[in-house]
Amino acid sequence: MIPKDLIAASKTIIIKIGSALLVDADNGARIPWLNALSDDVMVLKKAGKSILIVTSGSIALGRKAMGVSHTERPSSIPLELKQAAAAVGQIALMECYIKAFSSYGQAVAQILLTPSDTENRSSHLNARATIHALLGKGIIPVVNENDTVSTAEIRFGDNDRLASRVAQMIGADLVIQLSTTDGLYTADPRVDSLAQHIPLVERLTQEHIAMAGDALAGVSTGGMKSKIEAARIATESGVHMMIAKGTDHHALSNVCNGEARATIFLASGQPRSARQKWILAHVKPKGGLILDAGACQALLAGKSLLPAGVKSIEGAFERGDAVKIYDSNGKMLGVGLCAYDGESTRQIAGRKSAEIHQILGYSRGDELIHRDDLVLNS
C-alpha cells in the first residue's frame, strides 16, 4: 500500500503537527508554512474528508514571553515555566490557525485534552460527542494537550500519543504524523549512513521499537520512540498511521499525491472490533438494562440502543459507566457504555428520543448506548 491509496480510502483523518514544524529557531510561528498547510487541508476537505488537527507549539510560542531562551531544551525547563508558557502560547497558536483558514471562511475549534481525558469514561464520551458535533458541521477541531493544567510532568511525545488516542476515541481511519523525518529507518540516519528507510510496517515488533532514536535538540519534544508508541496505540485500535516529513511547504499535499516518502503502519484490526476489545478488557459493568424484544432485535442488527426499548433498570451507575444488557427473559446480550447516568436513564426509559430534552431539561444525544460502545455476546 502506498500513501496516496491509503489517504484515498480514509474518511476521517487526523493530522499531527509538531513544534519543530510550526515554530522557527527564534520561537516565531512559521506563518507561510501554516498557510500552505491550510491550502492542503482544504483540498482534503473538498474531497469529502473529515479533518482533525492535533498540534503542538503552545510552549514553544510562549517561551519568549516567559523569558526562556530558544536554545534551552524542553527537558531542562521547570514545569511551572512550561505551563505558564503554554498559557501564553496557546492563544498565539490558535490565532495562527484562525488566520491560516480565514481566507477560506473555514471555522476552527480549540479542544484542549490530556491523555486521561481519553481514558476516563465520562470525559471520553463528552470529548467524543463534541468532536463528532464539530466534524458534523464541517468545523476543523484543533486539539492540543492541556499543558497548563497537566498534573504530571509534560513529557516527550505526549501529542504523538494523544493523536492516536483521539483517533481511537472517534474511530478515525488514519493518523498522519508530520515530522522532521520521512519515516522509520533501520538505524538513526543522522549518525548511520547505512540506515535504510522502511516504507511499510505491517506489524509492529520489538525490532521496530529498537530502531527508534531519541528526540532532536531544540523545540521538539517528540522523538521516533514516541511515534512508534503512537503507532502501537493507533494500529491496535484499528487505525492506520503514517510518518512523513513535513518541513517543506505543501508537505501534506506531497504525501497525498504520493510524491513524498513516508512510513505506513497498517492497522491490526477494524476500529470497532478494537474498541470492543478495549471495553471488555478495561471496563467493569456497574448496572443493567432490561430491553424489550424490538430493542434486542435492533441491537443484533447493528443498531444503537434508544431509550424507547428499555423496560427497566438495575443498579446505580454514572454517565460513561458500563452496564449489562439483558432481554426480557434475563438472558445477557452484552455490555455497553451508557451515555446517561442511572437516574436519568430511569426517567427516559420507554420514552422516545425526541422527549429526552423535555423530560431531563437537556439531551446528550438520542442514544442510550451508541453501537460503537456496545459489545454483544458472540
Automatic annotation (TrEMBL):
Keyword Nucleotide-binding, does the record have it? yes
Which segment of the chain is annotated as a signal peptide?
none
The record's section on PROSITE patterns has:
GLUTAMATE_5_KINASE (PS00902), PUA (PS50890)
Question: Where does this chain mainly localize?
Answer: cytoplasm
Q: Which GO terms describe its molecular function?
A: ATP binding; glutamate 5-kinase activity; RNA binding
- Localization per record: Cytoplasm
Q: Which Pfam families match?
A: AA_kinase, PUA
Boundaries of each PUA domain copy? 287-369
A Gene Ontology term for the protein's cellular component: cytosol
The pathway it acts in is: Amino-acid biosynthesis; L-proline biosynthesis; L-glutamate 5-semialdehyde from L-glutamate: step 1/2
Keywords for this entry? Amino-acid biosynthesis, ATP-binding, Cytoplasm, Kinase, Nucleotide-binding, Proline biosynthesis, Transferase
Q: Give the GO biological process terms.
A: L-proline biosynthetic process
Q: Which reaction does it catalyse?
A: L-glutamate + ATP = L-glutamyl 5-phosphate + ADP
Q: Name the enzyme's class.
A: transferase
Per UniProt, substrate binds at: 56, 147, 159
What are its E.C. numbers? Answer: 2.7.2.11
Q: Tell me which residues bind ATP.
A: 16, 221-227
Its function, per the record, reads: Catalyzes the transfer of a phosphate group to glutamate to form L-glutamate 5-phosphate.
Q: Which PANTHER family match?
A: GLUTAMATE 5-KINASE (PTHR43654), ISOPENTENYL PHOSPHATE KINASE (PTHR43654:SF1)
Similarity comment text for this entry: Belongs to the glutamate 5-kinase family.
Q: Provide the protein name.
A: Glutamate 5-kinase
What is this organism's lineage? Answer: Bacteria, Pseudomonadati, Bdellovibrionota, Bdellovibrionia, Bdellovibrionales
